[in-house]
Amino acid sequence: MALRLTARRTAGNGKAEGHDQDAEGGTTIRQEREPVEVQDQEREPVEVADQAPGQPAGHPGAGENPARPGGPTGGRRRARRARRDDPAPRYPRVRLIAGFALAGLLAVALAASAWQGARWWSQARSSDNAKAAFTADRDAATAAGQNSMVIFNTVDYRQPAEGLDRWANASTGPLQEKVQQERAEITKTIIDTRTVSTARLIQGGLVAFDRGAGTAKVIAVIEIRSVPEGQPATTERTRLTGEVTRTAGGWKLSSIQTLPAGT
After folding, report:
1. Is the pLDDT reported for residue 15 higher than 70?
2. pLDDT digits (tens, 9 = 90+) for 203-238
3. How many domains does the chain contain in total?
4. What is the pTM of this model?
5. Residue 134 domain-assigned (yes or no)
């Protein structure tokens, strides 16, 4: 190590730095050492967690996990905490099966409700159709009976055959048989009266109706205007009742009779 003599003083305090005095000459000798290069060692950075304000040193910060107790008790606590914090279901298969079962029950319930609704709608529709058919049959029987009564009271001595054909077409059963059997006598009577009679319905109604048996009973008030040849016309009203029977060709009059006055 080299030694150098210097006579330097510091600017601040005027004292000699790093000096040794020689006994003989009183000369200040400064001993300087050559600088030794020391290689700086790189240190790994140490991550220091942020410490909360007011938190004492040595206390675990927000980013550090506190020390967990060891032993069986600490292990059980950690296990319970892990199970409690675990968002996954504990029994996924059981819950999945329960979900499928619930969905199946819901589908069955919906299907049953739909079937019941369709059945109710079908029954309601069938009921409505049955009521509509009943009403249509009843009205047809009433109209047929009343119209037949008007036909049987409309005659023209100039065309007796056409009138009797209409009688036969509007009747059935015993009434039709009588018209066919007594056709000649009825024709002679019409010609002999030399009268043209025209009837029209004033009022009518249904007395009884049996759709299953295909029978009905009607009543009607008709007005008859008769014009004898060479004489003035006369008008009269009469009350009639008749029975109607359902046939393949529709409802037709099976009997007719005049009701006494006042009944």
Report:
1. no
2. 999 999 999 999 999 999 999 999 999 999 999 999
3. 1
4. 0.54
5. yes
| pLDDT value at residue 261 | 72
| Tokens 């029978």 belong to residue | 215
Cβ pair 186, 260 in contact under 8 A: no
Evaluate whether residue 113 is within a structural domain. Answer: no
Which CATH number covers residue 213?
3.10.450.230
Q: Looking at the domain assignment, is residue 140 inside a domain? A: yes
Contact of 240 with 256, CB cutoff 8 Å: yes
Write down the residue that tokens 């709608």 correspond to.
Answer: 121
Parent domain of 137: 130-258
- Sheet with 155-156, edge to edge strand ranges: 155-156, 195-210, 215-228, 234-247, 250-258
221 in any annotated domain: yes
Please tell me the distance from the alpha carbon of residue 165 to that of residue 242, in angstroms, as a whole number: 19
